[in-house]
Amino acid sequence: MGTHTGPILEGRGDTDYERYVRVPELLDLQKPAELLAHPEERLFQTTHQAAELWLHHVDYEIIRAAELLGAGDVSLASDLLDRCARIINLLRQQIVILETMAPADYHVVRTSSLGRGSGGESPGFAKLLTVGKRLWPLFEALLATRKVTVIEIERAPREHRELFRLVQAMLDYDEAFLNWRYSHMRLAFRVIGSKVMSLKNVPAAQLEQGTREPLFPELWETISSLTQEFKPSY
Q1: Distance (Å, whole) CA 54 – CA 60
Q2: Which of 41, 75, 141, 172 could form a disulfide with 36 if both were Cys (CB 3.0 to 4.6 A apart)?
């Protein structure tokens, strides 16, 4: 009797890879080619579907990081925040691919396929807007337990090496998130301009406000405070 070499996992697909990743189900989520309003619509939909998967995963890692902060596991929490920052940077690189679409082609998609949909309605994006509120109280509680302040960590980073790394990881994530929002704003300006109202009747230019709203403003303010202590002359 010959050795069985076919898939052993349940599900659709000719291989275990397809069944584990659920490739048939994923591809079924895409609009059939014959129903696309424009050939460029496939790129637009693929980009946003992939983004929602990554945003969902970042939220998963943020939940883990929050649990670790609550338990005082600073090192692993920092690792997860670093991972999240890398994913957000990937999303930033991904979204600019849409700049290869001609504005005229996008408008065909926009006016025929998107309904009243807006990127601001992204459930993944909405969850990540709350990261500051979710992590900051846990961070403050951790500092209270360790009897140290952010400015003290910044003054002596090598004396507070583990906590300084956490602060850096939080800033890295915050900066990545701000850069991603900035890239999204520039994409909007590139494709629809800054004066057009979104499908939710919001000016595209309003996106700029979000690029100036860090998740952890206290950390950025502390860096300014540290600089003032050195009384720079420049």
Answers
A1: 10
A2: 41
Residue 199 burial (CB count, 10 A): 15
Task: Decide: 187 and 103 in contact? Cβ < 8 Å.
Answer: no
- Residues in CB range of 172: below 8 A, 6 or more apart: 81, 82, 85
Strand partners, 203: 197
Q: Which amino acid appears at position 67 of this protein?
A: E
In one letter, which amino acid is 95? I
pLDDT at 195: 72
**CB contact at 8 A, 180 and 92:** yes
C-alpha distances (whole Å) from 168 to each of 72, 131, 175, 182 are 17, 16, 10, 21
CB 184 within 8 A of CB 208: no
Instruction: Report yes or no: 99 and 63 within 8 Å, Cβ to Cβ.
Output: no
Please give the span between the terminal C-alpha atoms of the chain, in angstroms, as a whole number: 82
- H/E run at residue 218: helix 217-229
For the chain, give every domain's residue range: 37-229
Tell me how far apart the alpha carbons of residues 77 and 59 are, in angstroms, rounded to a whole number. 13
Q: What is the pTM of this model?
A: 0.90
CATH topology of domain 37-229: Methane Monooxygenase Hydroxylase; Chain G, domain 1 (1.20.58)
Which of 51, 31, 137 has its CA nearest to residue 96? 51
